[in-house]
Write a structure and sequence with these properties.
2 copies of one chain form a homodimer. Helix content of chain A is 72%, strand content 0%. Chain A has 203 residues and is an all-alpha fold. In chain A, helix 7 packs across helix 9.
Chain lengths: 203, 203
Amino acid sequence: MVSISVRDRGPSGSPRPYLRAVDRRRQLLEVASAVVDREGLRALTMSHLAHEAGVTRQLVYQHFADLDALLRALLRQRTGGFREAMSRALERGRAGDDLLARVVEVGLAAPANDRRLMRYVFCGLADDQPALGGLVRTLRRQVTDRWLTVLHGTTAVTPAERARVWVVIMTMFTLWSLEDAGEVTAPDALEVMRAAVGALSNP
Amino acid sequence: MVSISVRDRGPSGSPRPYLRAVDRRRQLLEVASAVVDREGLRALTMSHLAHEAGVTRQLVYQHFADLDALLRALLRQRTGGFREAMSRALERGRAGDDLLARVVEVGLAAPANDRRLMRYVFCGLADDQPALGGLVRTLRRQVTDRWLTVLHGTTAVTPAERARVWVVIMTMFTLWSLEDAGEVTAPDALEVMRAAVGALSNP
């Protein structure tokens, strides 16, 4: 693990030190992450990232082909721990209630900033920035495929079945919002989640 | 109905004509609406609105105390027709399936731009702009109270019951997203909605 400061100019404004490609990429992602938490995802542009990282736009483009690629890399990094924990929770069995309790537990353990980022990407990004609708649809397909594989052992299901799974995932996101706003307790959220899954997983 | 152009400067850049307060307010909301559809809700600021409307910021502040007040007025205007149609649909009876079919029909009839705006406000705004979380919570309470009154005849329910109703509303929003993305048909959406409501309205 290389320690990298958010701005790598010297105190006298001297040029940025040389970084290996892998370290530069990591630095850019760290700066991008800080921008998103501070100013919202929408504030993240290639130019703004270049400015905040103290590098040229050209250098940013050497690491990320476009904003889409940058967003994907950022999400992959920010949700990596969550996705691993969720995979472990999903794989440990298929018994309805236990599975759910584990999934809700994993959700509760995720850092609030990361939950907020995931909610916005899946629930708000395409509506706020229609140009990114394609990215949202791709991510939705990936997440749904993952759940379908665990829950049904196949991704070859009807569109209605796919919609059911996505509604369950969105119900989890909705309950996170209510929990974060202090409008529902974790046990209540689990109870509502159980009701939703019960209905939606038995056509 | 007064006809108002989006920019009311004369072709020579002459000062804006005098408008009655009610007409000025309406003009500002029309310009704000156009900004939101073109650039996203986040692009809407008091300064940007003043610039686009060709008036001073001071004049904008005479009509709207702050961005919160402007957003509320804009949402009230943009969702007025939808809310009226939904109220009529909700009032016509309580039989589960018929009610649902009417609600889904009202949803399908809403202009895509308005659906997108509502989805973003309820699902993305607070995550993208945490400062507006209070506004989102207020709107959520109002909408949930309206549904609770129709469905249960009272708003004095447990937090879990309130969460159930909100999850049903969010399920409708989720299915709109899938429909708009061409991932699910209207009949499939209705079927999934039925399953969700069936489970969530019978604790």
